[in-house]
Amino acid sequence: MHARSPPPPVVLGTSVVAVAAAAPPIAAMGTRSVALVLLAAVLLQALLPASAAEGLVRIALKKRPIDENSRVAARLSGEEGARRLGLRGANSLGGGGGEGDIVALKNYMNAQYFGEIGVGTPPQKFTVIFDTGSSNLWVPSAKCYFSIACFFHSRYKSGQSSTYQKNGKPAAIQYGTGSIAGFFSEDSVTVGDLVVKDQEFIEATKEPGLTFMVAKFDGILGLGFQEISVGDAVPVWYKMVEQGLVSDPVFSFWFNRHSDEGEGGEIVFGGMDPSHYKGNHTYVPVSQKGYWQFEMGDVLIGGKTTGFCASGCSAIADSGTSLLAGPTAIITEINEKIGATGVVSQECKTVVSQYGQQILDLLLAETQPSKICSQVGLCTFDGKHGVSAGIKSVVDDEAGESNGLQSGPMCNACEMAVVWMQNQLAQNKTQDLILNYINQLCDKLPSPMGESSVDCGSLASMPEISFTIGGKKFALKPEEYILKVGEGAAAQCISGFTAMDIPPPRGPLWILGDVFMGAYHTVFDYGKMRVGFAKSA
């Protein structure tokens, strides 16, 4: 095992026997010396944390609720990512041989679980997402001068570390949330009580866009396989194993879904904590290295088969994805069964309920249609058409007042409503019929990021959604797959299912993110190349 310094050395997970063995031979010592050594060993065992005595290293996770700024950032970054991928293909890392396709789709803006690491000697602290769906470690660099986002986060200062080693190789990673670019460096990385030496990581000098600016994390620590590591950098987890810092090549995630308890959860390196789960784990082999990918069976809605994965599907366990993502065809069916409506549909209905009559009155008064949405305050007028004014508007369910969400799509919804109403007026329909018809059209609108809202009061009537893994059904209850945003009368509920179509040969693919991993304790067994799931405690 690897010893920690400064002296006296304390070896992680060392037993009393091992400590005594390090002492001089008993024959060469007096009775008093032997007694002192044994007493010291007993005291050391008593003083060591339980996790150290078990050979486990625990990283406390903090849970932060999804807020409206994060949702807007997630949607904007996701739309940008979709446009970029549409132009450049799924694998936007370039030369990645198809392995980087999912990394390029990742959207961290709704992430809730974070932990702390240190980089350098003495350790410089950073808040990171521990992400099993990517493999690089990156943090903002003090040499990041021209990206505003860097100034909102902790930045690594190589000149303040005595263990820094220059590398300089350029690096870039494309995520769904945006790209980061910089260069590789090497330094010690502190994870819990462990110090990983000579770790290659990326100093990010460019974080374009505003999305990283509002992010609650400084960087990403990837726990995937080296096969998808940009620059073929050796992942932190590999180094932990190589340097003998963990007793067992296994790590596990426990997410505490009871946010009112204050504790976000734990990552345990070197094994698992029996208090984090109930019963036994069901293990499935890793089917393709890169991501923690495995084969999955049928998906059931309310106990009834959908038939979609009856002949098998692939899935990955991804701690860096907040929702549960799957092929559009089945996600649409799930969301229909749980009564989910698209966020755009909700915004469209908000426009109709708040401004529908006013829009109709302006059309009847023969106001120029292209100016109507600016007149009602949802857009600004640039001389030709309405432009989003970033109107803050989401209806409070009880009071009918704005709760302050900046929502650009409100302008788009207004523009569509104007066109629809024009067509209906041309057909001499009554005002009531027109408003009802527009509401029906709102229901048909797709969501830009697949994010869908549900009625918070309808959870009791929603079905269980089950996934077949290793021949066993893993069910998610409504309270496990519905995310609540906000509090009180202004609270909104979001479906934990989102559509994401991964093309062949990697896809079709399910991404079991925090929604699933919160309900099921997840074990990543690097030694036996398998993933295990058991009900979270």
Automatic annotation (TrEMBL):
An example molecular function term from Gene Ontology annotations: aspartic-type endopeptidase activity
Where in this chain does the record put each Peptidase A1 domain? 113-534
Where would you find this protein in the cell? Vacuole
Stored InterPro entries: Aspartic_peptidase_A1, Aspartic_peptidase_AS, PEPTIDASE_A1, Peptidase_aspartic_dom_sf, Phytepsin, SapB_1, SapB_2, Saposin-like
Q: Which organism is it from?
A: Oryza barthii
Role this protein plays: Involved in the breakdown of propeptides of storage proteins in protein-storage vacuoles.
Which residue positions are annotated as catalytic?
D131, D318
Q: Which residues form the Saposin B-type domain?
A: 343-383, 407-448
- Keywords linked to the UniProt accession: Aspartyl protease, Disulfide bond, Glycoprotein, Hydrolase, Membrane, Protease, Signal, Transmembrane, Transmembrane helix, Vacuole, Zymogen
GO BP term, pick one: proteolysis
Q: Which family does it belong to?
A: Belongs to the peptidase A1 family.
Which Gene3D superfamilies does the entry mention? Acid Proteases, Saposin-like
Task: Spell out the protein name for this chain.
Answer: Peptidase A1 domain-containing protein
Residue ranges of the TM segments: 38-61
Main localisation? other
Q: What Pfam families does its record include?
A: Asp, SapB_1, SapB_2
| SUPFAM superfamilies with a match to the protein in the record | Acid proteases, Saposin
Disulfide partners: C144-C150
